[in-house]
Design brief:
With 336 residues, the chain is α/β, with parallel strands linked by helices. 20% of the residues lie in helices and 28% in strands. Helix 6 packs across helix 7. The radius of gyration is 20 Å and the shape is globular.
């Protein structure tokens, strides 16, 4: 398939700039395998879950990866931390080019060279980021990050720091909603995939088979692997919350990952660069909860692979006509 097959027009007004007032009051488009569509509220999700089903969440935590420093001349330099590449050294992205020192705050500075930043600081590095950094909101949210984004741009079950983008499908859950799901007899488990630049890196190759994903770190407890096997054996469903959760679990079960240590240890740790697009055969996931994604994006292609390009395209057209809110702070889809 071609990247152009995943283009669509989206009115600017449908891009959500802020989340719903309450997480689980966002809208939910339920897409059935026969193509039937229902319009619901996210708090209705338990109605679609059954006792014995397994719900998988990504508990990665976004850190304030966007920094601003002052050059010796007084000018400002803004950049995004992308990947840790050494001791106190990170790969970065920035709009302008600069080489030299910058002061970020008292006791926190960096030396910028090409696409890297080497930091000097007092105390703990992550504590300095939380003190001085901004949340790395996507560029289509055309506003400055606010203090509230530290809560908004995060799931309520976020636990393990390491992402520069949120697993946005999970942002619709509240603690109360998760409690209702568990009370139905649904098993809820967390794995980790730290989201890097690869998840939203533009696809430059027109032929999808020529695109390569950047590898992202994941952890899956051995007990989750056993839970998946038991769930499938009993005829119940495995529901994945988000494309990153899906990539972690499908990357492991399809063998498309590089392990860090043998399977004898738990959790299973490794890096996966699995790229899921139409033609992929899913090994584990039976239902998918996901947001509405950008044109030509890899998450959109994964959703298309899961339910079929024609059905997804029709669902997106209906979502636009019904004025669903799109992208990170937008509404959700349940693909059954």
């Amino acid at each position: 398939m071609k990247a152009a097959d995943f283009d669509f027009h989206l009115p600017e007004g449908l891009i959500a700039k802020k989340p719903s007032d309450k997480r689980d009051l966002s809208r939910l488009l339920a897409l059935h395998r026969n193509g039937r569509i229902e319009h619901k509220i996210f708090s209705n999700l338990p109605d679609y879950l059954n006792e014995g089903d397994l719900l998988l969440l990504n508990n990665t935590k976004v850190f304030p990866a966007r920094l601003t420093g002052t050059k010796p001349t007084g000018g400002r330099f803004e950049f995004l931390l992308v990947k840790e590449i050494g001791i106190d050294k990170w790969g970065i992205l920035s709009k302008g080019k600069y080489r030299g020192g910058i002061s970020i705050a008292e006791g926190f500075s960096a030396e910028i060279e090409d696409l890297t930043a080497r930091f000097s600081y007092s105390g703990d590095f992550m504590e300095n980021l939380w003190r001085c950094g901004d949340m790395p909101l996507p560029p289509y949210i055309k506003r400055k990050p606010e203090p509230a984004d530290r809560e908004w741009y995060q799931t309520v079950y976020a636990e393990k720091e390491g992402s520069i983008a949120a697993p946005t499908a999970g942002m619709h859950f509240t603690g109360e909603l998760i409690g209702k799901i568990k009370n139905k007899g649904v098993n809820v488990r967390c794995l980790t995939l730290h989201i890097g630049i690869g998840t939203f890196k533009p696809i430059k190759a027109e032929d999808l088979s020529e695109h390569s994903m950047d590898a992202e770190y994941f952890e899956i407890g051995k007990e989750i692997v056993e839970d998946i096997k038991k769930t499938k054996a009993s005829g119940k469903r495995v529901l994945s919350v988000g494309t990153t959760t899906t990539r972690a679990i499908e990357g492991y079960f399809s063998g498309k990952y590089s392990p860090i240590h043998p399977f004898t240890r738990s959790p299973i740790c490794g890096y996966t660069n699995i790229f899921i697009y139409p033609g992929y055969e899913f090994r584990v996931v039976d239902s998918l909860i996901t947001n509405f994604h950008l044109p030509r994006s890899t998450p959109l292609m994964l959703a298309s692979a899961f339910c079929g390009a024609e059905k997804l395209s029709r669902a997106y057209s209906i979502a636009v006509s019904q004025k669903y809110r799109f992208f990170s702070y937008g509404d959700a889809m349940l693909i059954l």
